[in-house]
Specification:
By secondary structure, the chain is α/β, with parallel strands linked by helices. The protein has 16 helices and ten strands. The chain has an eight-stranded parallel beta sheet. Strands 4-5 form a two-stranded antiparallel sheet. The two termini are 38 Å apart.
């Protein structure tokens, strides 16, 4: 593939947010003309089961046949659940972790149930599960989203949930690499720093990610967190030492590396979007999230095109990223087909799903923390 042809395909390295509950003309054009890889839906895009099915069907139809749209969502359970009240509600993963101590298959069943419902609505990817270890009670953004304070429990339960999700047809995404659990700062608001030595990261933070890789997780999301022991200049999202040397070379991850949202202040307050794209591509990011601002998205795509044409990023690096994204799409989208109302109504909130959720809520003693930025996007 020649370099100028690669430049035309760099839109495949981006997932965008859209403004409301329908696909507007600008978003439609970005899918068609810029070949943006996919769409992530938030609360602002979701009104009802029927509306979500119609929107996702419209997204499928708007994308070029040779560049199908990857439709994704943050549906973790607990306070991070964009489809609350539509899909079967489940509590935060801390509750799943408590019950899973006596039932190792529970996370698999929860993951499969969530994926069956998401797939029937037209979603191909869920940005879950959280693989951060809940080691810091003062953490404002992870907390009960984590399965446990024990890294080996997070590893075991996370791996089983990933297997359940992916065997039911939805790509999972382990987050936030190499670990956001011990921070006391929300990376939506500022750049956290974790001064831990490498031996601590090996025994705590990295344990669940290694297990997820062994379980075949399709994607891993980066953390907008600085780890001086790994890179004394750049946050994980933009660090070659973190994403290529550690995640690719040492841990052996072969799937898609996804950036957390480039609009989050943890990176956006320190870098222009053009710099983030150039550094991120060179570091090893395969798929960038720009979750709201489409002006910023267009700047990001232009920066990627320029990096390719000017040779700032190697042809091999871009081809590898595009190949990983394509493989994930082939596995979890296949031949693009719109969701149907009949299938969604049959599967979503089905009686066996409600029974499983009732069991989870019966052991959920977690008081939902005050709403954080992650709920309001």
């Amino acid at each position: 593939m020649r370099m100028h042809a690669l430049a035309k395909d760099v839109g495949q390295l981006f997932v965008m947010g859209i403004g409301g509950p329908t696909l507007d003309d600008r978003s439609r054009a970005l899918l068609r003309d810029k070949r943006v890889s996919g769409v992530i839906l938030f609360k602002r895009n979701i009104d009802s089961l029927e509306q979500v099915v119609a929107l996702n069907a419209d997204i499928v139809g708007a994308a070029p046949a040779d560049a199908p749209a990857l439709i994704s969502v943050d549906q973790e359970g607990g306070r991070v659940a964009r489809l609350r009240g539509i899909c079967t509600d489940v509590p935060a993963m801390r509750a799943v972790g408590k019950l899973a101590r006596g039932d190792d298959d529970l996370p698999y069943r929860v993951g499969a149930m969530m994926a069956r419902e998401l797939s029937s609505l037209g979603f191909h990817m869920d940005f879950a599960p959280v693989l951060d270890v809940d080691t810091n009670p003062a953490n404002p953004v992870i907390g009960e989203r984590s399965f446990s304070r024990d890294p080996h429990e997070v590893a075991r339960f996370g791996a089983r949930m990933i297997q359940g999700m992916q065997q039911a047809g939805v790509a999972a995404c382990g987050k936030h690499f190499p670990g956001h659990g011990d921070t006391d700062t929300d990376s939506h608001l500022a750049l956290p720093r974790l001064p831990h030595a490498m031996d601590r990261l090996d025994t705590i933070e990295l344990v669940p990610f290694a297990a997820a890789i062994e379980a075949g997780v399709a994607s891993i999301m980066t953390a907008h967190v600085a780890f001086p022991a790994l890179d004394d200049k750049l946050p994980a999202t933009l660090s070659h030492d973190v994403l290529t040397v550690l995640l690719r070379d040492r841990l052996g991850f072969e799937g898609v590396i996804v950036s957390d949202d480039l609009e989050m202040k943890g990176v956006a307050d320190h870098f222009e979007v053009e710099e983030m794209v150039s550094l991120g591509l060179a570091a090893g990011v395969d798929l960038f999230l720009v979750c709201k601002d489409q002006d910023k998205l267009e700047r990001a795509i232009a920066a990627a095109e320029k990096a390719v044409v000017d040779g700032e990023v190697s042809r091999a690096r871009v081809e590898a990223a595009l190949a990983r994204v394509t493989r994930m799409k082939e596995r979890f989208i296949g031949a693009p087909a719109p969701p149907t109302l009949d299938e969604a109504r049959r599967l979503v909130r089905a009686a066996p799903h409600q029974e499983l959720a009732a069991r989870l809520f019966a052991v959920d003693e977690v008081s939902t923390r005050a709403a954080s930025v992650v709920d309001a996007i």
